[in-house]
């Protein structure tokens, strides 16, 4: 774990942000709001664990200080990017556009504020979460929850809802739970008779609720986590059963039995494999979210799943 931290410290920029991409990509070395939010989420969780069990971790005061400093710097970079209206300055955003699925990154800022007791980070996180709420239509559709306005992928839809459900818990505000439920009801209202997998959910939606006849395997795991994290009064039995069906279906897509060890246990991003989301790819983050669903299925409390 210390080696992972050392690597990440080396990727952190002087302004507290983490770089976008890797060395072979054009955005390497440039600040990334989304990457920073994802990374600080993990670092903040680690900081909480190290402080809570010093006998197990045996970290020196210098190591702990370095980790805390990194979390604070990343959190403050994110807080600095929140504009007056609560959206993020698009300068360091994907395609330089304002997107509400950055609620996922704001989850990282909120966690940084919690573990460092920095009220400014919590207030800026709330400001962005409230901006996301302001973009939700009465029917539950949230403007900007996809990479593109005309076609939103389940992957980023679930990122948006994950940020909001975590906001509900972290900020003790039921408005965010209510917003998630509205969106879930909308997502469940698609024309199942026209979908090849009617017990599951399409990979992409348009704002008129037309959809692609494909699956986003990653998004199904992500959405299942959102549903299982939503408190029972807002979730309901119907959505809970839906999450269970998605988890059960995802198990059938896991690669097994290959001679190449790296192939075993991974999942395709889409089905069909050449589907619209990450065509032909076996992505590690999809496997990570799938593992989270399995942990919950095995009895781990949903709120223990932080990543």
Description:
The protein has 307 residues and is mostly helical. The chain folds into 2 domains: 1-135, no CATH class; 137-307, Glycosyltransferase (Alpha/alpha barrel). 53% of the residues lie in helices and 4% in strands. It is built from 11 helices and 6 strands. The strands form 3 sheets. It has a two-stranded antiparallel sheet. Helix 4 packs across helix 5 and helix 5 (103-116) packs parallel to helix 7 (154-170). The two termini are 16 Å apart. 43% of the residues are buried. The model has no long low-confidence stretch (mean pLDDT 94).
Number of domains: 2
Topology-level CATH name of the largest domain: Glycosyltransferase
The rough form would be described as: globular
Strand order of the largest sheet: 1-2
User: What's the Cα radius of gyration?
Assistant: 19 Å
Count of alpha and pi helical runs: 11
What is the count of β-strands?
6
Q: Span between N and C termini?
A: 16 Å
- Oligomeric state: single chain
CATH-level-2 architecture of the largest domain: Alpha/alpha barrel
Mean pLDDT level:
94
């Amino acid at each position: 774990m210390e080696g992972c931290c050392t690597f990440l410290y080396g990727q952190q920029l002087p302004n507290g942000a983490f770089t976008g991409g890797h060395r072979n990509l054009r955005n390497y070395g440039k600040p990334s709001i989304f990457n920073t939010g994802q990374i600080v989420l993990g670092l903040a969780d680690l900081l909480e664990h190290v402080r809570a069990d010093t006998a197990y971790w045996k970290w020196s005061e210098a190591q702990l200080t370095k980790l805390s400093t990194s979390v604070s710097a990343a959190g403050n970079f994110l807080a600095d990017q929140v504009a007056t209206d609560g959206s993020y300055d698009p300068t360091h955003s994907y395609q330089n556009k304002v997107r509400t699925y950055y609620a996922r990154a704001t989850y990282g800022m909120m966690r940084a504020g919690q573990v460092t007791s920095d009220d400014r980070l919590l207030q800026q996180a709330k400001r962005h979460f409230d901006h996301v709420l302001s973009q939700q239509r009465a029917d539950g559709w949230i403007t900007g929850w996809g990479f593109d306005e005309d076609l939103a992928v389940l992957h980023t839809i679930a990122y948006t809802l994950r940020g909001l459900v975590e906001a509900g818990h972290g900020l003790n505000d039921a408005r965010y739970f209510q917003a998630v439920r509205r969106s879930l009801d909308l997502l469940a209202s698609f024309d199942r008779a026209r979908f090849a997998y009617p017990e599951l959910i399409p990979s992409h939606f348009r704002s008129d609720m037309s959809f692609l006849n494909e699956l986003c395997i990653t998004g199904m795991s992500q959405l299942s986590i959102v549903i299982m994290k939503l408190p029972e009064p807002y979730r309901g039995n119907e959505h809970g059963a839906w999450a269970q069906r998605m988890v059960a279906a995802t198990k059938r897509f896991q690669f097994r039995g290959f001679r190449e060890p790296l192939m075993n246990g991974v999942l395709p991003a889409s089905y069909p494999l050449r589907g619209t989301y990450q065509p032909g790819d076996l992505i590690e983050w999809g496997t990570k979210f799938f593992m989270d669903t399995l942990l919950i299925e095995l009895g781990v409390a949903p709120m223990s799943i932080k990543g």
